[in-house]
Amino acid sequence: MQYRKRGLQKLAGILEIPQDIVLDLPRITMLGNQQLLIENHKGIIEYTPSLVRIKLSRGELIVNGNHLMLSNLQVEQILIEGTVREVTYDT
Amino acid sequence: MTLNIANYINGMVRIRIKGIMTERFVNLCMAQRILLWDIVKHDNDLYASMRLNDFFRIRPITRVSQVKIRVVAYRGLPFLIKRVKQRKMMLFGAVASLILLNIMTSYIWFVDIIGTKQLSDTMIREIAVQNGLRPGSEKNTVNAKQIEKKILLAIPEVAWVGVSFSGTRAEIEIVEKTMPREEDKAPTDIVAGKDGVIIEFIALAGKPMVKKGDTVKKGDLLITGIIPEQTVVDEAGQSIKNNVPPQLIKANGIVKARVWYETYGEAEMTVFHHERTGNREMAINIKIGSNQIPLKSAKLDPEAEFENEVIHKKIPVWRNSGLTVESEINIYHEVKTLWAAKTTEEARDEARTKALLAVQNLVPETAQILSRTSEVLDAAEPNLVRVKVSIESIEEIGRSVAILGQ
Hints:
- The complex is a heterodimer.
- Chain A is of the alpha+beta class.
- Chain A has two helices and six strands.
- Chain A is elongated, with a radius of gyration of 15 Å.
- In chain B, 24% of the residues lie in helices and 45% in strands.
- Chain B has nine helices and 24 strands.
- Chain B has helices at 2-10, 22-31, 52-55, 59-65, 77-86, 88-104, 121-130, 144-154, 344-362; strands spanning 12-19, 36-42, 45-51, 67-75, 110-114, 158-166, 169-176, 188-192, 196-205, 207-208, 215-216, 221-224, 226-227, 231-233, 239-241, 247-248, 252-268, 270-288, 291-296, 305-314, 325-341, 368-377, 384-396, 398-402.
- The chains are: A alpha+beta, B alpha+beta.
- The A-B interface holds A 43-49, 69-75 and B 22-23, 26-27, 29-31, 33, 35-41, 46, 48.
């Protein structure tokens, strides 16, 4: 499994294909500490104004902060607004 | 932005999601491609916005996720239409007011006439009314071109006329002809308006009574408009009575004469002026109708000099009552008299300025000034400087005077 993934990654590098598409990885974009955009997610596990847990293809993403708000919720992307203090990647 | 407009047109609702598995509800919504936004948590309740179309699709999801949904707010066109439908009279009123506005603006409310100077507005207004242009007439029925033509034909003094409409106001613009001034044909004499010596004499009409070089006094006859019976002498030396009777004409001519003016100006060597010391007293009176009530009286030093300043304050006419309420404030400024001495030159200049000012009022603007002299006279008083200014000028002295007895 690990070996196969590495092979795929190499192939993506040779063919210049974006790795997130090949490997089904989330693309996380942050605008300061105010906006956090997560693409290619698998749904939300938990939501409170101070904590958001998002399921990914492997593992989950834990966002800590204040006044967090899910301002846009779609199949492809989640936009979190508020004051982000901490983003943790849990595998 | 476009998404916002689309959402507004389709309508959107804000819902409260109550339950244990609110996250599950959100995930299921996502899986169903139901768009949610502005999700916030308040006291274990989730608030989210969604489209109105999607709202009717969430029933199965609520059953699965065991949450209770409640609409807390709605926004958008579908709700607005619903509200308007409930209040039909409002819509009716809006339409009615539009129709009324349309009807009202199709009539003329005011007729303005501008540009008239000699002509009377009422005459033009009358013609306009006869041709259907009056307050209350419909705009479409008024033929502006025809009214322009009618006014132009009816009043010969009008050079150009324009009828235009701006909103509910009709404007008749008039440009008047400038008529040549009618000359007075009444017979006149030319008499001297001032004393002087004639240096130029041209009689254009009438019989000359003086000649160049004559000294004339004010009121002397220069050119007469009375032409006596003409007699013609024939070859034989006999005078034949001509049948031209004595005529009266309007005399005309150019009579230029040398005219002298003399004026005097005086100035004192010492002057005094008052200067306020800054001390002042105030007296206040209130006048109600014909009664006067002193509120404050001034305590004046009998030995000092004062300048009095009076201020009247009136309450504006209140409901047309005849009662006048007025306050009168007397301010007494204490003054000190200061004496100042002037040099002879200053006094002389002042006197000359006074004299020149006086002479300027006498000499007409068209006069040609030949010389201007000033001399200081010996004044009887030692404190006084007296200056004489004399001016010699050439000017037209002829004045038209109507021949009496006609």
